[in-house]
Design brief:
CATH class of the largest domain in chain C: Alpha Beta
Largest interface: A-B, 98 and 105 residues
Distance between the termini of chain A: 14 Å
CATH architecture of chain A: Orthogonal Bundle
Order of helices and strands of chain C: HEHEHEHHHEEHHEHHHHEEEEHHHHEHHH
Structural class of chain C: alpha/beta
Helix content of chain A: 55-70%
Shape of chain C: globular
Radius of gyration of chain C: 24 Å
Helix content of chain C: 40-55%
CATH topology of chain A: MetI-like fold
Chains: A mainly alpha (about 290), B mainly alpha (about 280), C alpha/beta (about 450)
CATH architecture of the largest domain in chain C: 3-Layer(aba) Sandwich
Number of strands of chain A: 2
Number of domains of chain A: 1
Oligomer: heterotrimer
CATH topology of the largest domain in chain C: D-Maltodextrin-Binding Protein, domain 2
Number of strands of chain C: 11
Number of helices of chain C: 19
Distance between the termini of chain C: 51 Å
Chain lengths: ~290, ~280, ~450
């Protein structure tokens, strides 16, 4: 293996250059300025860990946003993965509707978020929205409920808007599923295993890696997603649907406080790394081939 | 055993129907709204009381400079995707197959893009691009987009390459093939499904990316398609009909690319199953 | 292998440091110090009045007129930023890097940022030196934007007068007239409700525009104290009776006197509710008048059923737009002069006239006449102007007087106020907290 030293370097270098140019400098600036007092326009002055202390002691909304983010990471890593993988297993049986469903399920992910935001606002409109209209028809009496703004259902509604993300999980898993040769299925059938048992005991273990990958992508997307939130609840009511990226966006671009925002960024990165490393361990992704 | 099957079938049917409904509604709604007037969209009427507003599509081109943005988006998305796929499939291959000290570090480094909040990157990237005179250029955007898609491609390629048994490469080495040739002739063809999947995701990311596109460009001539959608929203006067018309125009190429890629994945799977 | 990788790493780190230093060191693009006589001076300008914006046509005409007039001498490079949020965010990013365009619109606190980062130019001496410009800008606009120490960092190009519109038919059926006091206002709302009409078109999304106009009116007409509060820029505290009482009234309106979708609604929802005759009143400005005759937005013939009124206690929002800031403090002499020419043009007679005709923006002084054709075509605007002249209380709205953090806080907490999560006192405290985020630390 070591004789390929020069290939290793050659194959890695472009990626490393890209990483340094786009990320490394930014991360250094991020971490560095999180220890300063930096508002847009003012000069930068060192302030030690003041930002971090403020975030953890005086900023209740930030703590709420951490909990919301963790809740959403947990939900995405479990429910969405379950739905995505389940669908992949069903579709892999090559029914007549396989390619149709697979395409259709992914489409919401293709529509730009500017349009999606307005779409949700209109569909969930308490007075005119499609959702309430359907429920009214079913229940027989006028159903008026503010899905996004009522404190009881705000969190749930926002969680629902991320359901189509499971479509991504499905196509990832399906792409790798077909690398399982038919002979393995046949051998298991001969041994008397039912289709369901085959799925659980043979397919899933082989998909361990891609499911882990999908989990990482889904979980970490909760550290980035704010476009739907911006356009529907804005993080409200209060801070009920505030997640960390949304709060960071507000701190940087509404409060103009870059120093504090970058401190939030550092905490977010740490949370993300913990999630990343945990998922890799759970799915044993570090095992050598 | 026989009793379970109808229950399973019904559950499966309900499940699939649910999936199809929640997926299809967004696009149908957007498509239908592109033919409606503002008032109808805001009042969420069904049907087309005031007729089909084909002029929304005309207005879309008039209000926003769609053609220029389209061209830029195509260029940026395709080039950034190609660069991203090449660079990170190479890196993934080396990570999976070779042993070397800094492997874990590089994996974590390349995963960092997943956990760095985008809003925190805007300012540093603006400064970096300004300093290197790449601000307000398509080249700058391409580099940034290729890098932002780093972890997704990297993980997908890593995951897929791990499913390829080493025996094929071993055979190639025994036959005298070098490292590079093995990569090109054995690995690349086998990873077509992964390439297609990662490629689609990267392309869609570039095609729909708004925030960096806005911050890192200034001239109208360099802007991309997602920015066009915001031309229809303003504080007191928004033309939602035209916005949805523009959305349809913007989304259709992505759907086409997605379907093309699906074909690649399927054909790749057929040939890939040879590698039992 | 280790040493090779180490060498590569070392090279990378060096490159990184070079980039970082270069990035921190660079400010603006290199400016043309030696301008040849035949190359026009290039200045930069950023605008959000593009696309479907009310003033997009007016803005384009002004820009074209300027480029034509100064052909060969000055060229304006325009950055288009669709939607107000995109504009503000991009300008903030540029402000942080000290790279704001030569002329910008200083809304949403951008003027303050330009002052802080040293790019804004004090134009007071420049205005005083140019009698022609001074005449069309007028004392009112200058005094409005003047700082305490007599400096002037921004100049508006339009006056804003805002009352509210009401549906005359609905009022007639209910048997009421526009309220003269706030008690009458609330009892009118009750009567409208009993008659089967929804009184108010409100919203809590975006910047809670229509809701906050009512809030500003309630405070601004509350005696001298209230009036002073709503004329103070960036107050330190909202923990006072004026604000709490007004919030209590707004709370009742949001709970009982508005549409079900008001909580979380964006402007388009509120406007739609009034234009589709779902509600009887909407607090909004004269730019809405063209919508009354637009059948794709409003019910047929709505324009004949709409009246305009001052707020109870004869109050009206009377203020100037924050206006345009000259950000050329560190540029070459040619660029400063060219940008100044542009600023003068943008806020001068011709531009004000174009903005009036094309987007219903009221001019700064009576020196720019409102033509008779315009008056004939827009009776509601004429009514509003006449009423405003009789107003007892003039005040500003929340967007002009509050920090962006406070506006954000409004939007996040109105739903909580309505659903009983917090009290008006608690909400006022939160507003104060948000205002303090901008205090110098």
């Amino acid at each position: 293996m070591t004789k390929n030293r020069k290939w290793i370097i050659l194959f890695l270098t472009p990626g490393i250059i890209l990483f340094i140019f786009v990320f490394l400098i930014s991360i250094v600036l991020l971490v560095g300025t999180s220890f300063t007092n930096w508002s847009i326009g003012s000069s930068i002055s060192f302030s030690g860990i003041k930002n971090y202390i403020y975030l953890f002691t005086k900023d209740k909304d930030f703590i709420t946003s951490i909990f919301n983010t963790i809740k959403w990471i947990a939900l995405q890593s479990t429910i969405h993965i379950l739905i995505g993988v389940g669908l992949a297993l069903i579709l892999a049986k090559s029914k007549w509707y396989t390619s149709l469903v697979r395409t259709v399920f992914f489409i919401p992910n293709i529509i730009s978020s500017a349009a999606l935001g307005l779409l949700f606002l209109c569909i969930m409109n308490p007075q005119f929205g499609m959702v309430n209209n359907i429920i009214t028809k079913i229940m027989g009496e006028q159903f008026v409920h503010n899905w996004f703004m009522n404190p009881d259902t705000a969190f749930f509604s926002v969680t629902m808007t991320w359901l189509p993300y499971a479509g991504l999980v499905t196509i990832l898993v399906m792409a790798e599923m077909a690398s399982i040769s038919k002979e393995i299925y046949e051998a298991a059938s001969i041994d008397g295993a039912s289709s369901f048992q085959q799925d659980i005991y043979i397919v899933l273990p082989m998909m361990r890696n891609i499911i882990g990958t999908a989990t990482i992508l889904a979980a970490t997307s909760m550290l980035q997603k704010l476009d739907i939130i911006i356009m529907t609840t804005g993080g409200g009511p209060g801070a009920r649907t505030m997640n960390m990226p949304m709060y960071l966006y507000n701190t940087a671009l509404v409060d103009n406080n870059y120093g504090l925002a970058n401190a939030q960024g550092v905490i977010l990165i740490i949370l993300g790394l913990i999630t990343l490393i945990s998922v890799r361990k759970i799915y044993r992704m570090d095992k050598e081939h | 055993m026989k009793v379970i099957t109808p229950i399973k079938k019904t559950l499966t049917f309900i499940f699939i129907s649910f999936i199809v409904i929640i997926s299809v509604i967004p696009f149908i709604w957007v498509f239908a709204s592109s033919f409606r007037g503002n008032a109808e969209i805001m009042s969420s009427v069904s049907g087309f009381p005031s007729g089909l507003h084909f002029d929304n599509y005309v207005a879309a081109f008039k209000i926003a400079p769609l053609m220029i943005f389209y061209k830029n988006s195509v260029v940026v998305s395709i080039i950034a995707t190609v660069i991203n796929l090449i660079i990170f499939s190479m890196a993934a291959y080396v990570i999976v197959r070779c042993k070397f000290k800094l492997k874990k570090t590089i994996i974590i480094a390349f995963s960092l893009a997943l956990v760095i909040p985008g809003a925190a990157l805007l300012q540093p990237l603006y400064n970096t691009l300004s300093a290197t005179h790449l601000y307000d250029t398509l080249a700058g955007l391409i580099i940034v987009y290729a890098a932002l898609g780093m972890p997704t491609t990297f993980y997908i390629m890593m995951s897929y390459i791990q499913t390829i048994p080493y025996t094929l490469e071993e055979a190639a080495y025994i036959d005298g093939a070098g490292f590079f040739r093995t990569f090109m002739q054995i690995i690349l063809p086998l990873t077509r499904p992964a390439f297609a999947t990662a490629g689609v995701l990267q392309f869609l990311f570039c095609w729909n990316e708004f925030q960096f596109g806005l911050t890192l460009t200034g001239d109208k001539m360099n802007r991309t398609v997602p920015i066009a959608l915001y031309y229809f929203k303003s504080s007191f006067a928004s033309d939602y009909g035209a916005m949805f018309a523009a959305t349809v125009l913007v989304t259709i190429p992505s759907i086409i690319i997605y379907m093309l890629m699906q074909k690649q994945i399927i054909s790749g799977l057929v040939s890939g199953s040879v590698k039992g | 292998m280790k040493s090779m990788l180490k060498k590569v790493m070392a090279l990378m780190v060096t490159l990184t440091m070079v980039f970082t230093l270069a990035a921190c060191g660079s400010k603006t693009e290199k400016s043309d110090d030696t301008v040849s006589k035949d190359k026009p001076v290039e200045i930069t300008y950023a605008t959000f009045m593009v696309g479907s914006h009310v003033s997009a046509a007016a803005e384009k005409e002004v820009l074209d007129a300027f480029n034509e007039k100064y052909e060969g001498k000055i060229k304006v490079k325009v950055e288009e930023l669709p939607s107000d949020d995109a504009y503000v965010n991009k300008m903030k990013a540029l402000a942080a890097a000290g790279a704001l365009p030569d002329v910008i619109n200083g809304k949403n606190g951008l003027r303050e940022l330009a002052i802080k980062n040293g790019q804004a130019v004090d134009i007071m001496p420049l205005v005083e030196a140019d009698a022609e410009w001074n005449k069309y800008v007028g004392e009112g606009a200058i005094n409005y934007s003047k700082t305490e120490d007599g400096k002037l960092y921004s100049i508006a190009n339009q006056k804003q007068i805002v009352g509210y519109f009401y549906n005359k038919d609905m009022f007639e059926t209910t048997g009421i007239t526009p309220a003269k006091t706030w008690e009458e206002f609330m009892s009118n709302n009750e009567k409208l409700k009993e008659a089967g009409f929804t009184p108010l078109a409100m919203m809590t999304g975006e910047n809670a525009w229509t809701t906050n106009l009512w809030l500003a009116a309630m405070i601004g007409t509350n005696g001298d104290e209230g009036n002073e509060f709503m004329n103070t820029n960036y107050p330190d505290s909202y923990d006072n009776d004026l604000v709490v009482n007004a919030l209590t009234m707004v709370q009742k309106c949001l709970k009982d006197y508005t549409t079900p979708d008001a909580i979380g609604a964006i402007y388009a929802n509120a406007a739609n509710n009034f234009l589709q005759e779902n509600t009887a009143m909407i607090a909004n400005g004269p730019w809405m008048v063209p919508d009354f005759t637009d059948t794709s937005k409003a019910k047929e013939g709505l324009v004949d059923r709409v009246g305009v009124s001052l707020y109870p206690n004869d109050g009206v929002v009377a203020q100037y737009e924050i206006g345009y800031v000259l950000c050329t403090a560190n540029k070459s002499k040619e660029e400063q002069e060219a940008a100044l020419e542009f600023l003068k043009f943008k806020t001068g007679k011709e531009a004000q006239k174009i903005f009036l005709e094309k987007s219903g923006a009221l001019p700064l002084t009576a020196n720019v006449e409102i033509s008779d054709e315009y008056k004939a075509a827009n009776p509601l605007v004429v009514d509003l102007i006449n009423l405003a002249d009789e107003a007892k209380y003039g005040f500003e709205n929340m967007d002009n007087t509050a920090h962006s953090s406070v506006i954000e806080e409004f939007s996040l907490n109105y739903p909580e106020l309505v659903y009983g999560g917090i009290t008006p006192e608690e909400m006022a405290s939160k507003l104060t907290q948000a205002a303090n985020k901008h205090k110098e630390q």
